[in-house]
Specification:
two-stranded antiparallel sheet; Rossmann fold
């Protein structure tokens, strides 16, 4: 049986990552703007071969049904090369003129937040000193923090004028000013403001490790409730589940030797990133 989808439009904005850098908050803030419509399901992952690419363009278009000036989605896995290859090429073949936003964060802080998240959902149980090795693209913590390497995959297909590089630190500490820059990049009203800009989404502070019941309930929520309720309601339900069936995770403190090794390693990626963007990323340790 061939399923028919309601006609929609293709997006002209993609938030391509990075994971644990504030994409959920940014997706939420952009969706508050009257000229911007962000997909109800945040991570469509359409341009990934083994995710939803097989569902076809009509399925993808069905997620963008409004008359907004800008339609967008946010899939941090779009910058997980080489785990998923060919993403920029597929994206360019479908939406060659789209604008891209890549939100970054101190690469080591980002790794730690990903590690804590993986602990919380049972995807990792190793000591951080073991989890962060080896320092190469085979390590899923490492490759996602190699921002310039990820960016280079897109620069093969998209002009730099179509890509906005921003940081989680700026979004956190200078939110209104940072969102004004984003709105200008998208050619929408830069003066728009909402009190909801004060809200934070998915902060990793106080993240908790779910027990077996908590993991089962999380799976149920993701597969059923997500299709019915809004993002705000889903987050409230998830918060109740997490508090009842989990224990708090202490954010790991990296040893001086490991931290120095990570700083030295990432410098080879951040140096060309700084040159490309003209930013010194002063809030970062690298």
């Amino acid at each position: 049986m061939i399923r028919k989808y309601a006609k929609g439009t293709l997006p002209n904005l993609i938030i391509i990552g990075a994971q644990k850098c504030g994409t959920t908050s940014l997706h939420y803030y952009l969706g508050l703007h009257p000229q911007i419509s962000m997909s109800r399901e945040k991570e469509l992952e359409f341009f990934m071969e083994d995710r939803t690419w097989h569902k076809g363009i009509e399925w993808y278009k069905s997620h963008f049904m409004t008359r907004a000036k800008v339609h967008g989605e946010s899939s941090p896995n779009y910058t997980a090369y080489p785990r998923w290859e060919g993403v920029p090429e597929k994206m360019h073949s479908v939406i060659p003129d789209t604008k891209l936003i890549y939100i970054l964060r101190d690469p080591i802080d980002r790794m730690v937040s990903q590690y804590v998240q993986y602990l919380s959902v049972g995807l990792d149980n190793r000591a951080v000193e073991i989890a962060f090795k080896p320092l190469n693209n085979d390590n899923y913590y490492v490759r996602r923090s190699r921002y310039f390497m990820q960016l280079q995959q897109y620069l093969k297909y998209f002009p730099s004028s179509n890509i906005l590089i921003m940081t989680a630190e700026d979004l956190l500490n200078e939110r209104r000013k940072t969102l004004e820059k984003v709105f200008a990049f998208l050619n929408v009203d830069e003066t728009f403001y909402s009190p909801k800009f004060l809200n934070l989404k998915h902060g990793s502070v106080g993240r908790r490790q779910k027990n077996r019941i908590g993991l089962l309930l999380k799976q149920f929520a993701e597969s059923n409730i997500a299709k019915i309720f809004s993002t705000d309601v889903r987050m409230k339900i998830g918060g109740v589940i997490e508090l009842a069936f989990s224990t708090e995770i202490a954010r790991p403190v990296l040893g001086e030797s490991l931290r120095a090794e990570l700083i030295s390693f990432f410098k080879e990626d951040t140096d060309p990133l700084k040159e490309f963007t003209g930013s010194d990323f002063a809030a970062w340790c690298v």
